[in-house]
Amino acid sequence: MIVGRSLWVAGTNTWIVSDDNQECVIIDCPPDPLAIVALVNHYNLTPKAIITTHGHVDHTGGARSVSQRYPESPVCRHPDDAHYLRDPLQSSGMLREALRETGLDLSEPELIQDLHDGDRFKGAGMEFYTIHTPGHTPGSICLQVSLSDGKVLFTGDHLFKGSVGRTDLPGGSTELLNQSMREKILPLRDDLQVFPGHGETTTIGIERRSNPYLINL
User: Fold this and answer.
1) 3-state SS of the chain?
2) Residue 106: which pLDDT band, with cuts at 50, 70 and 90?
3) What is the mean pLDDT of residues 69-84?
4) pLDDT tens column, 92-104
């Protein structure tokens, strides 16, 4: 089961992932922790981990608050984006004022686990395969997981339906994003479902054929 909600002012997708049990993994935590906790409670689930696809505050701003609610759940991220969690206000850019208005505790989560390229993270009875895809940020990752009804890919802000992540923010690189896409994402099978950090779901095949940012890679 995958349940998603678009949250906060940035319309960030948070994904609740569970597979035939009452445990789950949370993918991305925008600064709307009450909505995330309500979603988890609605399905009577127990989070076993929080994974952030990259360090931007619209994907991490609620991580500490949610992790405090579930203290045995580590916040997992690539170490190249560690600085975003240490100082979210400094890295929040145009979202800084909206972040301040949340009144959230923005200090670094207490329980953190690094995810590197190729790591297999096990949580809630599932295994998430980590794909390091720098470009949008230095520590951007995609996560592939096999569920009872097939494999899916969580792409954060690396790949969207019809678009890709922006590279004009600090730490961004169009060259690295294209390289990550060409070497690590486009070789994946066409029918792989894609759950992005913003917008609608899609598949690798649809994006390979129709995404204007990918056609010439």
Assistant:
1) CEEEEEECCCCEEEEEECCCCCEEEEECCCCCHHHHHHHHHHCCCEEEEEECCCCCHHHHCCHHHHHHHCCCCCEEECHHHHHHHHCCCCCCHHHHHHHHHHCCCCCCCCCEEECCCCCEEEECCEEEEEEECCCCCCCCEEEEEEECCEEEEEEECCEECCEECCCCCCCCCHHHHHHHHHHHHCCCCCCCEEEECCCCCEEHHHHHHHCCCCCCC
2) confident
3) 95
4) 677 777 778 777 7
